[in-house]
Amino acid sequence: MNISAPSLIASLTDIRNGFAFLGPELILSFFFLLLVGLDLFKSRVLKQALPFVALTGIILGLLTQVNFLHQLAAKQTTVFFTGLLISDGLAHFAGLLFSVAGVLTIVLSLLSNQLRLKFSGRGEYYAYLLVLLTGLNLMAKSVNLLMLFVALELVSIASYLLTTTLKKQQNALESGLKYILYGTLASGVMLYGMSFLYGFGGSLSFTDAAFWTNLSRLNGPFFLVIFLLTFAGFLFKIAAAPFHFWAPDVYAGAPAPIVALFATAPKIAGFVVIIRFLAQIKSYLVPALQDDVMVLIGGIALLTLVIGNFTALWQSGARRLLAYSSVSHAGFILAALAALATNSTEAVLFYLSVLLFMNFSVFLLVQIFEERLQIFYIKDLAGAGKNYPVLGILAIIILISLTGLPPTAGFTSKLLLFTNIWQNYSATGSPLLLTLLLAGILLTGVAFFYYIRIPYFLFFKRNFSSEKKVVLGRDNIALSLLTLPLLLFFFQPAWLTELIREVVLYSK
Asked: Between the chain's N and C termini, which has fewer beta carbons within 10 Å?
């Protein structure tokens, strides 16, 4: 294969210039190496400083993402690294959410007895967290199938290692092993599907019009099989059916801060990739195949909603209940994306932003109940709301938001999703969208029943124990600060929606 000198120089120049758009990833990589180096020393002071070193790196990455968002109009959309990655509003907004998730993960880790105290692998824990965030950022920027697979595997490997952080706990090791097995299967299936896309599309770039033009020549059933195989890895990351089986075990065995991270950041990255794919399908794929994709996405959304909500009804442990709740949230978002409409992106990004605060607040609540009060099952919450009124009131706000009721941002986010589905149904007349809308509304009612069990036990069940444990003030303060956005974005949703509109405007 002969490559001319001018072509090689142009490629090297493009690679060099591309580093200007990788500020957050370079910062996270530097602090990863710094953490690994500092962890080699046995100094107690350095060991205690490791979480703050990681926090500094994530905050610097966050500030870089904010700077990119401020310069959206000037930078607009740039494809770099010879077409492997893209810099646009969607990628940087997702990066901002990843950074916030990383900061909150470290805050929850510092509040956790298990992770705050000295444990084996402390430095590794924070190093893996930075690797995970780096992979998520690359995943959100990927527009090349090979780069996307590498980024997703980077996320997966870091996730497997974080799941088994507490190596001495048997359930953590069991959860990690199951996660690895399910993840390996999903990755293998996805790679198999990508090989078909490359073979029939003639390119690894899925933003190339010719790529979709070539795929348009395939017949419907065969294209849908390839599409589903490729999406296996993304459905695994967002915990959508039928790739949701890992969620209950991992949620039950991993440390609470890591579970909160898994319930948000990889889900956001997965949906960003799905949004990119669906935008290209809407623009370049022939209408007949677009309709087939719409039916497939709608069917997965409906299956995910039904499994997530009805399975959650029978759970006795809070963690497993929240695992199936996470599956349900993935179904709601997929329902909005089923129309393949560009106006779905704004509603989905608002929902994901609110979901980030809902998940971290509810898992901080779980962490407090487990570590401070030794409560692991819903029935053991009996009377706790009366003994700990601050926790009880905050728990009600969080659960109301997860259900999607006012006056919380959870209501606003679901209202935007349902409104979006209705608007697309009115425009297309698709019976599938009407089915998804009605199913979403009815299953929100089902969600109310399993969420309301927790306040019921907190305030209406009698507690026969006279023992009262101590809940630290810093736990209440942190939980209050995490709950505040759930109220703020209900009364002032425009603060978030205006930013999201600008992000969507400068996205490809």
From this structure: N
> What is the pTM (predicted TM-score) of this model?
0.94
Helix/strand/coil for 42: coil
pLDDT tens, the chain, 508 aa long:
455 666 667 767 777 777 888 889 999 999 999 999 988 888 888 888 899 999 999 999 999 998 888 877 656 678 888 888 998 889 999 999 999 999 999 999 998 887 765 555 578 889 999 999 999 999 999 999 999 999 999 999 999 888 877 655 666 677 778 888 888 889 999 999 999 999 999 999 998 999 999 999 988 899 999 999 999 889 998 999 888 888 888 898 888 999 999 999 999 999 999 999 999 999 899 999 999 999 999 999 999 999 999 999 888 888 999 999 999 999 999 999 998 887 889 999 999 999 999 999 999 999 999 888 888 888 888 888 888 888 889 999 999 999 999 999 999 999 999 999 999 999 888 899 999 999 999 999 999 999 988 988 888 877 655 566 666 688 889 999 999 999 999 999 988 988 888 887 766 5
Residues 212, 93: Cα–Cα separation, whole Å: 26
> Domain map of the chain by residue range?
1-193, 286-508
Output 373-380 pairs: Cβ under 8 A, ≥24 positions apart: 373/469, 373/471, 374/469, 376/317, 376/318, 377/316, 377/317, 377/318, 378/315, 378/316, 378/317, 378/318, 378/321, 378/453, 378/454, 378/457, 379/316, 379/457, 379/461
Strand partners, 86: 79
Round to whole Å and give the CA distance between 381 and 41.
43
**Residue 486 DSSP code:** H
Tokens representing residue 356 in the block? 């980030």
* Half-sphere exposure (Cβ direction) of 175: Cα atoms closer than 13 Å: 26
